[in-house]
Amino acid sequence: MQSAFDYLNEDQQKHVEQAVVDAEKRTSCEIVPVLSTSSGRYDRPEDIVGLWFTVMTALCLWFFFPRNAGQGDWSGLPVGVELIFAAILLIIAFIIGAIVGSRIGWLRRLFTPRQQMQDEVAARAREIFFDKRVHHTDGATGILIYISLFEHMAVALADQSVIDKLGQSFVDQICQHLTQGLHSGNATAAICDVIKEIGDQASTPLPRAADDQNELQDVLVLID
Question: What is the pLDDT of residue 220?
Fold first, then answer.
């Protein structure tokens, strides 16, 4: 699973941060872009993949080491030892499967319900909206751009003044443009384009005043 700290290189991060600086020169909005490795723990895929490994191991044991009824064979191991050996193999298979399920991103997504991922991403975005004080600017003009890499999902949240002046449709449009841009494969351009779009559309209804203070740092927030 790709880490948020490795997703963009240093130059790409600087491009995003410069886009924030340029956009905030034209509007009173405080724009906070966030990259997160994942929004939830998602234990279910580990258990499911571990179970599949266990079942496959059991089938292999049954196929390669059958016990034929009605025949005597004193050359093999005692039945009790064989059962202990088989149990150990099954436990090892489950542990390996759980590790594989926790490390391979597409497997985790395959066995995680999409609705659960959407709920986790939305909840995490709201949590960051408050934790990073995007919701606590003096003019209530904070905008959060949240990207969660594991889920391949993004959320845009805006404070009350932004919604009052530009409408919820503007926030939804930002999110749609962001996800479309990320799907194209150029994450840096997608994030910078959306930040520029915020600056362009918010500059008239929410212009930057001469005495505006930069309340939030113009940085790309990375969360592992």
Answer: 96
